[in-house]
Design a protein that fits this description.
By secondary structure, the protein is an alpha/beta fold. It contains 9 helices and 7 strands; from the N terminus they run βαββαβααβααααβαβ. The protein has a 3-stranded parallel beta sheet. The two termini are 25 Å apart.
Length: 168
């Protein structure tokens, strides 16, 4: 199972053309998005927190003009809604109610961020991987701090994190 950090989803959604090719050193293979999920080569899971991060990130992105944001979100929501290998763990009401700042400020996210030496904003994504630990999740991120996390050092051998070097 692949878990894409929000920055990777934004990279894919704002690409000039699909498929987006990303090489995984850890997996030793080229990944083609969004085909990896449509062709059942990999499975992924997306939380409401990630969707909100993606939406806010797209609005801050310099890669996409404001009029193209809806197009990028439509591409992602179509994938999320139509692909059996994309597990979504939320409904529309949850998306309307979520505030990123509130999630990041929760004491357990602050504590885990401190203990794991990652930012509190990355804890919900790592926690999602933990929920799916028996699926051997591999987190792909373009965030240097998060990418340096070694879950095995905390006894979590089933979870891996890989820092990508995406060309923005």
């Amino acid at each position: 199972m692949l878990i894409l950090d929000s920055n990777v989803w934004i990279y894919i959604a704002t690409a000039a053309e699909l498929p987006v090719e990303i090489y995984s050193d850890t997996l030793g293979e080229r990944l083609y998005f969004t085909e990896e999920f449509y062709d059942s080569r990999h499975q992924t899971v997306v939380s409401v927190y990630m969707v909100e991060e993606i939406q806010q990130g797209l609005h801050r992105s310099e890669r996409v003009e404001s009029e193209e944001i809806d197009e990028a979100l439509t591409l992602l929501f179509k994938l999320f809604g139509s692909c059996d290998d994309v597990i979504t763990t939320f409904d529309g009401d949850e998306l309307e109610d979520l505030q990123l700042r509130d999630v990041r400020q929760k004491p357990h996210n602050q504590l885990l961020g401190h203990l794991l030496d990652i930012q509190a904003k990355d804890v919900p994504i790592f926690s999602l991987a933990y929920e799916y630990r028996y699926e051997r999740p591999h987190i792909l991120t373009d965030d240097g701090g998060f990418g340096e996390l070694s879950p095995a050092a905390f006894g979590l051998q089933n979870i891996t994190v890989e820092e990508l070097s995406l060309t923005w």
